[in-house]
Design goal:
It is built from twelve helices and no strands. It is globular. By secondary structure, the chain is an all-alpha fold. The chain is about 80% helix and about 0% strand. The longest helix is centred in the N-terminal third of the chain and has 50 residues.
Length: about 400
């Protein structure tokens, strides 16, 4: 006679679990996992803040490597030794910066006498405006404010001195950061594949091919983003410099340099750089020239938003404009100007890496990828993209 197994009576914990709705159980399971992920991200952010003197120069070096890697690879494909290609790429950057510095300095020295006359005329007009109705600010009021400010500076001399000491320590930190940037750039360009292979070997063996694919996609997106931003920055700077020269606004080249640097901070940088151009036109050329300068700035920004980014970015950098705005805002809130600068390349790179990792299948694994992850083939002679980092 067959033995029929008796049903196990549910225990009290089982009945308690069954009493909870399935949707609530699923939500709770997601919630505690999200809390763990959030805690891990908070720890990472805290470490980045503590080690910002190292992390920020390292990130700047990665962006510089993404900019110089195509030039270095081009030179190596044409028979240049690796060290000479890397050194030549760095020399090109230094020469470009030096040329811009010389041009800016020469224009400031050339236009300094004219600037002094224009500034004196503007100050006289502004003083007459303040002295008239409805302001009614007299010279006596201005002198009183100056004497009050002088007394304030004298009473707070110790705090001002401490501020200068902090500025001096900041200068020392800037030199240390420059040292990190230079050496990180050199070693990543020379030995990038081996460094990336070492990073991949930290992870479990089964995860290495997926990480290789994600790293390659992230590096491709980062290099594409830097090239697009470089073209956009040069175009913005040229457009505003040409407009300033037509309007005879002084310091056209320094304005172009400010616009060029500001273009690397999406949304916020364009607004600030354009405001500087309009302000200089207002101070030295009057409100009519300032209005024309504002029109030129708006025209250049529309050209960037509706022509340059759609045609140049394409499918290489898939970041929605809403993501750009929110990312820049969040980066500014967390880390100020530095956060705004790194927000968009960080979002674009992480998005590409996550998308590539999610779309990867075991059939896509490549023997060369596996060997690179194991460290058996860590370099290539032609400077190709291997393991997500170009050299």
């Amino acid at each position: 006679m067959p033995i029929i197994p008796s049903k196990r009576r549910p225990s009290e914990p089982d009945r308690a679990v069954e009493a909870v709705p399935a949707g609530l159980r699923t939500g709770a399971a997601f919630a505690w996992r999200l809390l763990i992920v959030g805690a891990a991200l908070a720890v990472v952010v805290a470490l980045v803040i503590v080690l910002q003197d190292i992390v920020i120069p390292f990130l700047i070096a990665l962006l510089l490597c993404a900019l110089l890697a195509p030039l270095s690879a081009f030179l190596r494909r044409h028979g240049w030794p690796k060290w000479l290609a890397v050194l030549s790429s760095l020399i090109v950057v230094v020469l470009v910066i030096a040329v811009f510095a010389l041009i800016v300095t020469a224009q400031i020295r050339y236009e300094l006498p004219s600037l002094e006359q224009r500034l004196h005329k503007t100050a006289t007009s502004f003083q007459a405006l303040l002295d008239s109705e409805p302001f009614g600010i007299t010279v006596k009021d201005v002198n009183h404010w100056i004497s009050t400010g002088t007394s304030y500076l004298q009473s707070h001399a110790s705090s001002i001195a401490s501020g200068f000491q902090e500025a001096g320590s900041g200068f020392v930190h800037a030199l240390e950061g420059l040292f990190i940037v230079v050496f990180t750039t050199i070693f990543v360009l020379i030995d990038g594949p081996r460094i990336w292979g070492w990073v991949v070997r930290i992870f479990p063996r089964r995860a290495r091919p997926r990480i290789e694919v994600a790293g390659a996609a992230g590096w491709h997106t980062l290099t594409s983003f830097i090239r697009v931003q470089l073209v956009v920055a040069v175009t913005d700077a040229l457009g505003i410099v040409i407009g300033a020269l037509i309007l005879q606004v002084p310091l056209a080249i320094p304005i172009g340099v400010i616009v060029f640097l500001g273009a690397f901070v999406p949304v916020v940088g364009a607004i600030v750089a354009g405001s500087v151009a309009v302000l200089i036109a207002l101070v030295f050329n009057g409100w009519v020239a300032a209005l024309f300068m504002l029109g030129i700035v708006l025209l250049v920004q529309q050209l960037e938003s509706h022509v340059l980014h759609p045609f140049l970015t394409g499918s290489a950098v898939k970041v929605h404009p809403l993501g750009v705005v929110l990312g820049v805002t969040a980066g500014t809130t967390i880390a100020g100007v530095v956060g705004a600068f790194f927000a968009v390349p960080f979002i674009a790179t992480v998005n590409a890496m996550v998308t590539a990792a999610a779309a990867w299948k075991p059939d896509d694994a490549d023997l060369s990828v596996g060997s690179a992850a194991d460290g058996t083939s860590a370099d290539t002679s032609d400077g190709a993209d291997h393991g997500g980092v170009q050299s």
